[in-house]
């Protein structure tokens, strides 16, 4: 992401259009990259002066600064000085005081000489160290980057689009990888609902405050979400942006931005500690149920629901879906319950934080409810699965072939051997 002062957007037609680069801009990206590479070992002030000279040559200085901002994150700057700057300053100021102050060049040289004697160094070393820890005096000691001009331009476009989302209040996404999208939404602690439209399933993403008012406070999370969105082969995004009090629409799609390289921020695997804890403990049990994380979406009227887990029964093609309801706002709980009521012909378990007090409402929709406090008890989940096991066992018993059904209440191995003409 870039800083907002580097945002380049067009508001033509009342829209909000990021001004992306084109292949011709790779030449400029190459020059910025070359300036950084050519100033390894030099002062930051010299590097910035070279970039300023380049800004004067081009049509849009913000593009130079945008490329430079991305490279700065790959750069290492260090203070280089013969002495620790703080020590040099202390010695110099004490020496200046001892000579009655510095009002002339001669006084200055005398103070530096006295300071050098105090620290056992030369006057030149003291002078070189005085302000070496200022940012402009720090040296560029390394540029560790895999960027080439093309990938730098691609990263710039992605960062520009992310920055344009800073002021978004709502985002609508269609993606060819909805599972990864919803997983990222949940990791970022955003709220979502999934709608079925003529173009396919659409994920509408907001922040928790959206239940009460439209807010821009989740813009940085929307920006982080874009990286996951853009990683899908096909996608379309529309965001409602609060542009200094004016509502505008930002539209992006595959082809506008790509994701170069690997996401530098490792994402957590689970949406919450409760889910992670449950997954680890349940998976350690030797049961006839296999635990699946984030299974396929379920139709819920005009919307869809993606449960947290599913239990697959080993001895039959049967699946029980499982949702863990954490501490949600009452309005969001109500919306979730309405989605649950629209589910049809699925086995569904819901574990809910007992503080929500929604057990009866869940049971009223025909789903099994499991209350928990802190952690989901395995025994409660195991007990909720047992009725399904009994039903499946009864169904299997009804389908036993006639030839395998014993014709006598009591028999012996010998009698069976004689009947079928085989050795005992």
Defining traits:
14 helices; 424 residues; Trna Endonuclease, Chain: A, domain 1; five-stranded mixed beta sheet; 16 strands; single chain; Alpha-Beta Plaits; seven-stranded antiparallel beta sheet; alpha+beta
Describe it:
It is a single chain. Strands 9-8-5-7-6-12-11 form a seven-stranded antiparallel beta sheet, sandwiched between helices. It has helices at 26-38, 44-57, 61-72, 85-98, 105-119, 123-129, 149-164, 178-187, 219-231, 273-283, 330-341, 359-364, 378-398, 413-420, and strands spanning 9-10, 17-18, 75-78, 139-143, 168-175, 191-197, 200-206, 235-243, 246-253, 289-293, 298-300, 303-305, 309-313, 318-325, 347-353, 368-372. Among the domains are: 85-131; 165-260, Alpha-Beta Plaits; 273-398, Trna Endonuclease, Chain: A, domain 1 (3-Layer(aba) Sandwich), CATH 3.40.1350. Residues 262-268 have low confidence and may be disordered. Helix 1 packs across helix 3 (61-72). The chain is α+β, with helices and mostly antiparallel strands and 424 residues long.
